[in-house]
UniProtKB/TrEMBL annotation:
Protein name from the UniProt record: Helix-hairpin-helix protein
InterPro entries from the UniProt entry: Endo/Exo/Phosphatase_dom_1, RuvA_2-like
Lineage: Bacteria, Pseudomonadati, Bacteroidota, Flavobacteriia, Flavobacteriales
Pfam families named in the record: HHH_3
Amino acid sequence: MKKDYYQKVALLGMLLIILFGFQKYTGKKENFSGVQFISENAPPLSDFDPNELDAQQWQSLGFSEKQAATILHYKELIGGKFISKAQLKKCYAIKAEKFEELNPYLMLPETTQEARVYKNQKQSLILSGKFNPDHISADRWIQMGFSEKQAEAILKYKKYLGGSFGSKEKLKECFIISEEHYRQLEPYLILPDKISGNSGPSNPYTVKTNIQYKSFDPNILDIAGWQSLGFTQNQAKVIVNYRDKNLKGNFKSPEDLKKCFVISAEKFEELEPYIKIDPTAFAVKQEKTDFSKTDLNAITFKQLLEFGLDEKSAGSMIGFRRKLGGFVNKQQILETYNIDKEQVEKLISICPLNATEVQKYTLLDAPEEWLKNHPYFKYSANKIIFYRISTPDEKKIWKLLKLKPEYETRMKLYLK
């Protein structure tokens, strides 16, 4: 009897230990699921490689400290590097909505299979002579032997660097270019080996020339005019774009010019004595937009800035509208990421919305590409394509999709 008693006590103890461990595990999981994204303070998004981010940088994208730590832990578990967007998407700390926001800016191949193709390609490149990769178009990269997607990725990476590779070292870091391909390219590259902090030929933002300076107004110089001051064509384009887009067409003071990142401190010191800005140039009155007659599906980036939106809000709104193919109702605009909701509420209370030109389909005839790229349909696209082949009945497809009511309501905005 004593033996049976002790056996039962031991068994009961083991069951209690297992039960306690299970509760502890599920408790941790539930606690994590309650973590919310801190997206309101996130900075404007631009192209980035998630492999280069530390915990603080993940937090700056709107993740909590705990989520950032989980993402980095997940990266270590998969070998220390994300090799595709599909792989990053599997990290449970990144919700579907957040991934949708980040996806256009991720500098990764779409799938792991594509990444393997990029990594394992061994074919010889067709190289005829030395060249500067900063001046190479997508067609030229393709002629060398890269695929169309690879060429696009290389140009996207160059844009991410500020419009110039700057050095062989930076070009080598482009994940699309395998070690084998880089070895073939390296002897033909007209670039310094590394970017130096000193003002010399190894600094991509300094052009060492003997220039006879004379007074100039930076508000009237075109690309050729900036090149005559010793800047490369790419640098000149950046300066003009910075003036016309960021500063709305005018440098109001030499300090504005100094803030342009392609102008080094040394170069600005050379230019400063010759800068003569006409204060009347930016005092010219411009015709104001009548926002009560401006369609929200046609309003431009410049008009949004004129209304009072900042660049982040205006860019997010225009970008989301483009992905949707147009807004169907004003509430969608308020759901856009990274916008100043107070300003946007004022905007939509004044501007009309014409949705008659927005393209709509049925679930049965919607093009596959449209389904896979539309923000409301992309996560159900493959299921829709499969179900409409096997079950060409729209009502039955909705039942098979088993979507949350709010997702179904959003999708039906773009269906006939």
